[in-house]
Amino acid sequence: MGTVHARSLDPLPMKGPELGVQADDIEPPEIEQEPKQEVLENKDVVVQRVHIDGLGRTKEDLLTYEIAGVFRAKNLIDVMRKSHEARQKLLRLGIFRKVNVVIDTSRGEDALPNGLDVTFEVTELRRMTGSYNTMVGNNEGSMVLGLKLPNVFGRAEKLTFQFSYGTKETSYGLSFFKPQPGNFERNFSVNVYKVTGQFPWSSLRETDRGVSAEFSFPVWRTSQTLKWEGVWRELSCLARTASFAVRQESGHSLKSSLSHAMVIDTRNSSILPRQGGLLKIHQELAGYSGGDASFLKEDFEIQLNKTLFWDSVLSASLWGGLLLPIGDKPTSIADRFYLGGPTSIRGFSMYSLGPQSEGDYLGGEAYWAGGLHLYTPLPFRPGRGGFGDLFRTHFFLNAGNLCNLNYGEGPQAHLKKLAECIRWSYGLGIVLRLGNIARLELNYCIPMGVQSGDRICDGVQFGAGIRFL
Amino acid sequence: MFVLVIHILNVLHCCVFVCLFLTVTAAEPWPENATLYQPLKEDQILLSDCASSLAVQAYLRMCGLPVQVVCRVNAEYMSPSGKIPFIHVGNQVVSELGPIVQFTKAKGHSLSEALDDVQRAEMKAYMELVNNMLLTAELYIQWCDDATATEISRPRYSSPYSWPLSSILAYQKQWEVRRKMNAIGWGGKTLEQVYEDVSQCCQALSQRLGTQPYFFNKHPTELDALVFGHLFTILTTRLTSAELAERIKSYSNLLSFCRRIEQTYFEDKRLIQSSCSL
């Protein structure tokens, strides 16, 4: 969950979309233009056999679910469409490097005159794949080693191990993922990890060691995730000069939380969408299943996109969240929300607005943030149809607020507090889409409504990230 | 060897900070809201931490510097050196008796000003003796004696946390102390040898004190605060065995020394006694 709270310690994407096999990237199978096609087009056909060639470890029962649709095709066009769908399903399993489809007329003794055989020629991924990356960022360089067993038990189970050795911190994670055969969206995963993060804006260092188990399943058009997480969190000051407010938070705590997330995503692309909307609701209840931290956390994200004239897109987003402590213990700095920076309210420094003590930002218990963007193609559209399409210019208007709530004042007082001293900014810039997972922005920002204690970034600001307001 | 190098680095580190304090804080007077942080008195604090905390409190009282004692579950992790106690004065955070003495000196409060160089060297030697013998013996008994570790130290140390974190932290601490004991050669000692070391240390202190009210005659120094902190805590703390306290009780001048400091500097006796019942 890359939520606004800075504490999403996810430098290692343990799961998430399989990069190589994005549905968008898969080109439809090339259909050779044969003169016979018109003759066959409306003719009824029967798919007699479906072969899958090239299987090694993969269990066949898993694949029968994925290709079942092909048998139901009634004419040639249908066969091709269904085969294409089946091919995409097979690729989505993340266990094949390549899938080719061959459609041929049936041969042999029992061949019907209008019978067809469909053959999927698959190439399995290796039993184990490894990766090696180096990352630089946050005043730290690190080396990331990854090991992946894409098809451990033959039914698209995936075991992933990542180890990151940095100049300052070491992190690792082990994750096991199992989809339900025939229903890839219903899946179960278990993770074990240790992640260390440094948050210079809070002079805080956090080490999380945790176990989590999650179950995802689709309901109607939504994707639901239920998760339990047990984390041992160790907080310490980054420097001797850290403010006393941060020093007071140092030490160990155990969080055991149950969370639920719901996502409806009808956008055509998660980065630079042209149309569609996104609704994300996330709620977390900590403390009932043990641990020292007790709170209820709710947050949501809405995004709407609309294509206007000349390929320009108007995009509006709204985020909000609330953290309610349960019991007399105040909330921990590690659970609170953070706001500001090139990924949320532009024109402010990273997570550098709201409650602070001696220059260390302490986060808030409630926040909201809204953004309005007008994306247009680059002026004069250089590199049109190619490289130039990765870029957009945008004009933006961001606003938001982050504060603590003293419970007991009533909801109206809280709303008033969130409406006071609104931070906002506007400006324009260039956005670069990196694959379908991240984007870079270079903006000229004019921050407004700056409160004392906020750190601003007046003028040019550079941002990179996977989630943007 | 490695440990030694780290130790020297730490000392240098402290020196750098002390120098910094000297320049930064010299002019500022002692504020009213100075605070001393230690773990929870009733359920959490262990003998060694209680002794170190009492030593600092005694020192500050001898200097006439008011400090408010605050108990925090995470005092150990809040401390910049990871040691108990630490004081928060103005916007400065200083931990352990040595650096605190330097810090107060920078603010113009010192108990050892009147001593000559020889006496000062002697005082430092005795302070080292107390730290190397009494403090180490306390740590040994707490964490290396299985009965004490199981019945007192681990349950108390882990009391603020929920399982399984409580067990992890307690065993982690025990392992850390045992490793340190092995590094300084105490790993192979028996409990009896440790008691014998404590006796020898007390004998040396008793001889040095003689019939004087304080170690350097009329006026208390940081050595008196340190000795008081440890002896008083050992005497008033119930452990699995009373042997440790018994060893000290055989030196009558040390007992009256403790009583004297308690009466002179801790008029509100209830406070101090309840603070250290283990």
UniProtKB/TrEMBL annotation, chain A:
Q: Where in the cell is it found?
A: Mitochondrion outer membrane
Annotated region described as Disordered, given as residue ranges: 1-21
Keyword terms, alphabetized:
Membrane, Mitochondrion, Mitochondrion outer membrane, Transmembrane, Transmembrane beta strand
Q: Where is the POTRA domain?
A: 45-125
Which domain of life does this protein belong to? Eukaryota
Which BP terms in the Gene Ontology apply to this protein?
mitochondrial respiratory chain complex assembly; protein insertion into mitochondrial outer membrane
Membrane topology qualifier: Multi-pass membrane protein
Q: Which GO terms describe its cellular component?
A: mitochondrial outer membrane
What's the family? Belongs to the SAM50/omp85 family.
Protein name per the record: Sorting and assembly machinery component 50 homolog A
Record gene name: samm50
TrEMBL record, chain B:
Q: Where in the cell is it found?
A: Mitochondrion outer membrane
Major place of residence: mitochondrion
| Any one of the GO BP annotations | mitochondrion organization
Q: Which UniProt keywords apply?
A: Acetylation, Membrane, Mitochondrion, Mitochondrion outer membrane, Protein transport, Signal, Transport
Q: Where is the Mitochondrial outer membrane transport complex Sam37/metaxin N-terminal domain?
A: 53-173
The signal peptide here is 1-27
Q: Which GO terms describe its cellular component?
A: SAM complex
**Domain of life, per the record?**
Eukaryota
User: Does the record bear Transport in its keywords?
Assistant: yes
Residue stretches making up the Metaxin glutathione S-transferase domain: 199-261
Q: What role does it play?
A: Involved in transport of proteins into the mitochondrion.
The family line of this record is: Belongs to the metaxin family.
Describe, as the record does, how this protein assembles with itself and its partners.
Interacts with MTX1/metaxin-1. Associates with the mitochondrial contact site and cristae organizing system (MICOS) complex, composed of at least MICOS10/MIC10, CHCHD3/MIC19, CHCHD6/MIC25, APOOL/MIC27, IMMT/MIC60, APOO/MIC23/MIC26 and QIL1/MIC13. This complex was also known under the names MINOS or MitOS complex. The MICOS complex associates with mitochondrial outer membrane proteins SAMM50, MTX1 and MTX2 (together described as components of the mitochondrial outer membrane sorting assembly machinery (SAM) complex) and DNAJC11, mitochondrial inner membrane protein TMEM11 and with HSPA9.
The protein here is known as Metaxin-2
| Species the sequence originates in | Sphaeramia orbicularis
- Name of the gene this protein is made from: mtx2
